[in-house]
Amino acid sequence: MIAKDLALLALAVMAGIAVVAPSGPARPVLVLLALLLLPGAAVLTRLDTPDPLTWLGLAIVLSMAVDAGTSLVMLWSGLWHPMVLGAVLAAASMAALIIDLCMRPKQAHT
User: Fold this and answer.
1) Environment class of residue 38 by beta-carbon count within 10 Å: exposed (0-12), middle (13-18) or buried (19+)?
2) Rounded mean pLDDT of the chain?
3) Which residue in 16, 9, 52 sits closest to 31, CA to CA?
4) Angle 51-57-58 from CA coordinates, rounded to 5°
C-alpha cells in the first residue's frame, strides 16, 4: 500500500512538471493518467479493496465522477478554468495521499 501511495504521488509530481514544462509527447499521457487515477485513489485511501483490479476500477470510476462533478460546478458558475481545476484536484489528492502515508505507521503500532 505504501508503494502504491508513493507511486501515485510520483505520478502527481510528474504530471505537474509536464503541465508546467513545454509541450511534449509525455504531457498528455501523464495528465490523463493523473486525471484518471489521483482523485479516485485519494478517496480510496480510506477504503479497503479486496484486490488490485477492484482498486483500479474503483479509482478510475471515482476519478471520473469527481472530475465530472467539479467540472460541472465550474461550468455552471461561469468560472471555467481547467488548469486551476487540475491543480486543485492534484493538490487535494496529494494531500489525501500524504495524510494516508503519515497515518499508516501510527495505525500499525496501535
Assistant:
1) buried
2) 85
3) 16
4) 90
